[in-house]
Amino acid sequence: QVQLVESGGGLVQAGGSLRLSCVASGRIFSINAIDWYRQAPGKQRELVAQINRGGSTVYADSVKGRFTISIDITKNTGYLQMNDLKPEDTAVYYCNAPLIATNKGIQSDSWGQGTQVTVSS
User: Fold this and answer.
1) Per-residue pLDDT tens for 50-105?
2) Residue in 28, 1, 6, 14 with CA at minimum distance from that of residue 80
């Protein structure tokens, strides 16, 4: 089974930057897209950004102009570059792969374990 593992979270001051990574491991033939979600305490999980293997992107209004999503198909890795971070960006960030083609068939809706991002004011 393919697993997703996020890394790169941490504590940063407002205005700072972090780069999150999401590595998919296993017998992977292709990944069609990578999504990043976040969930703050007491709030619902929300979509932050999406990218497909063609490079098309979608961003939540709250992060447009500050966050950049990218994907390296050759490394089965997605990234989320977060600049000008604000305290309201504090959350656990999760990566999601809607569809992964593996040697055992299609694996759908794969999630990582999450990485904590904390932005201090």
Assistant:
1) 999 899 999 999 999 999 999 998 999 999 999 999 999 999 999 999 989 898 98
2) 6
Name the 3-class secondary structure at 87. helix
- Angle (nearest 5°) at CA 105 between 38 and 34: 25
CA angle 118, 111, 107 (to 5 degrees): 165
- Output the six-digit token pair for 79: 């990234």
User: How confident is the model over 15-48, as pLDDT tens digits?
Assistant: 999 999 999 998 888 888 999 999 999 999 999 9
CA separation for the pair 60, 58 (Å, rounded): 7
Q: How far is CA 86 from the centre of its chain?
A: 17
Q: Which among 79, 75, 77, 36 has a CA at the least distance from the CA of 59? A: 36
Q: How far apart are alpha carbons 114 and 97 in whole angstroms?
A: 13
Q: Is the torsion defined by CA of 58, 62, 68, 72 positive or negative? A: negative
Scanning the structure block, which residue is given the tokens 């809607």? 98
Report whether 37 contacts 96 (CB < 8 A).
yes
